[in-house]
Amino acid sequence: MKLTVNEEGLRLDNYLAKILDCSRSTITKMIKNNEVLVNGKTTKAGYLTRLNDEIIINHQEEDMNVTPENMDLDIVYEDDDVIVVNKANGVVVHPAPGNYHGTLVNGLLYHSKLSDKNGAFRPGIVHRIDADTTGLLMVAKNNKAHEVLAKELAEKKTYRKYVALVWGVITSDTGLIDAPIGRNLKDRKKMAINPDGKEAITHFKVLKRFKAATLIELKLETGRTHQIRVHMEYIGHPVVNDPVYGRRKLIDNSGQCLHAKELGFIHPTTGKYMQFDSPLPTKFLNIMSYFE
Question: By C-alpha distance, which of 205, 153, 152 is closest to 177?
């Protein structure tokens, strides 16, 4: 896997914890056993990642190979270079040690060949959304397409619009949140507003106000982990039904009301701009009905 702009400046062990979702002890062991190579060389856990670093993981574990699985995929668009898929609620995007089955990647590998730029765990994956976030993802079917799409994303040329239901009534019609995001110093599994974190910019617009919640659309200038969820919590309007950043009671266990509704990018081969839209899923609409 080759690092993008959004992934530079992290300790190697923190970066691996972010993408593999395995225990810190497992990651430490992998590095000490020289199972992680950075640009073809072994290094230490404290190594700071750099743009275009190539990281190869040679960790051998039972069932490490990702198995293609026949899954019901909602393919919005597909050609020889790219797939646009509407990810369902509860589906993890890619496998990680200890969780090799039932991910979007398992289903995509059954459906098609994918690029191998991101290694065995993340074939074809250019960008991710959380397991309980629904909506549109672009997936690369070959390495050339992957490189072009990843470059667009790093250069902020990819268009992404989300819709979220947040707690409380937002009085202003539009807003801009510019607050750096980094690891939560008290809980490394969470993100937080951190002065030493990376730049994170979110724009939002009110779509509809309810008595106790607001429906908003959001556009991202940056793509930090959990960016929308952290930013909305920061301004006192956490995403409804968010089990991690919600700070309010959960309506059910279906996850946060956050949907990647629109996705636009320049096609890696034709050079033409393409844009796609997906409707709000049933689980989102059901929760929103509580506030009407």
Answer: 205
pLDDT digits (tens, 9 = 90+) for 82-95: 999 999 999 988 87
User: 48-62, 154-168, 252-266 — which is least confidently predicted?
Assistant: 48-62
Tell me: the pLDDT tens digits for 2-49?
566 567 788 888 888 777 656 677 788 888 888 888 888 888 888 988
End position of a domain, from candidates 17, 45, 60? 60
Domain of residue 108 covers 64-155
Query: Active-site residue 130, yes or no?
Result: yes
DSSP, residue by residue, 199-211:
--EEEEEEEEE-S
Q: Are residues 114 and 37 in the same domain?
A: no
Note whether 247 and 189 are same-domain residues.
Answer: yes
Burial class (CB in 10 A: 0-12, 13-18, 19+), 17: buried
Position 247: which residue type? R
Which SS3 state, helix, strand or coil, does residue 285 take? helix
C-beta separation of 256 from 242 below 8 A: yes
Catalytic-labelled residue, pool 13, 53, 81, 130: 130
Q: What CA–CA distance (Å, rounded) separates 50 from 11?
A: 10
Mark whether 105 and 167 lie in a shared domain: no
Residue 72: inside a domain: yes
Cα dihedral 205, 165, 72, 1 sign: positive
- CA dist., res. 215 & res. 202, Å (int): 15
| Plot region of 255 (φ>0 → left; ψ -120 to 50 → alpha; else → beta) | left
